[in-house]
TrEMBL record:
UniProt xrefs under Pfam families: Hydrolase_4
Domain Serine aminopeptidase S33: 26-288
InterPro entries xref list: AB_hydrolase_fold, Hydrolase_4, MAG_DAG_Lipase, UCP037442_abhydr
Keywords, comma-separated and alphabetical: Hydrolase
Domain of life: Bacteria
Keyword Hydrolase: yes
UniProt feature coiled coil, ranges: none
Gene Ontology MF terms: hydrolase activity
Record-given protein name: Alpha/beta hydrolase
Amino acid sequence: MHHEAFWLNSSDATPLYVNRWFCAQPAKAVVMLAHGMAEHSGRYARLGAALAAAGYELFAHDQRGHGQTARHGRLGHYADEDGWNLTVGDLACLNHHIRQRHPHAPIFLLGHSMGSYIGQAYLMRHSSSLHGAILSGSNYQPVWLYRVARLVARLERWRQGPHGHSKLIDLLSFGSFNQAFKPNRTPFDWLSRDPQEVDRYIDDPLCGFLCTNQLWLDLLAGLQQITPPRQLTQIDGQLPLLVIGGARDPVSAGKRLQHLADALRRAGLEQVHLKIYPDARHELLNESNRDEVTAYLIGWLDEALARSRQRPRTAKEPL
């Protein structure tokens, strides 16, 4: 397995830090990854090695306000204006870069948690650029809930400013996640049953930070956009799609993964697969059964690749 890191200019010239894991032989397909909130792409090195060993190549960028990309902005902050669209557009820039490097390779999208929401918005705009997608640690809730939450975020932005960090928003969003795992060893027990993985997250200075009020406004506006059924119908109905997560993930409580899969099927997607692991928590790829999960993901990619219809491609995808 080989690894390289490089900087990629986004549509507004913001430099994006990208990790690439690959093998010496030409890849049979490429996976582009959108990571979750308050983490970064470097945490997916183990997945990159496993994919490379299976013949895949992995590209994963640090999203705006995260990881090394935050050196050219602000940690926990997409942008002062139009942050949601810029962040979704970053995936299009990455896809375009991959297409330039691999003009004929199939491309799959893997979005985890926050990245699954950004990934859904990307699918609504550019699903023709992909051969399949995986939504991990995701969620599906009523639009009215996001509207109410956005009112709170607007009040907090008014009170603290767009760059402020609201403990109230943190309490309402993440505050209850650890309650199901009492007695708690750490504030992040909800991430994984593996205490070593939880400790690695806590010890990582680029993980676990509070996001700005503006990022929350951008994210909640994005969730309002991607949730209505009419929006989901914009995704290619023939695209293979995997919804995957843990039954004890407090983000989805297991059942909301079923709700997401059902909503996608009602929207006309014909190849939606749902996989829920009993007892697993939020970060499946850092869970105690992570090898089982990784093997399943690779098997699903192999099957999706085998049955995927050939899509006409050009060297330039929409940005």
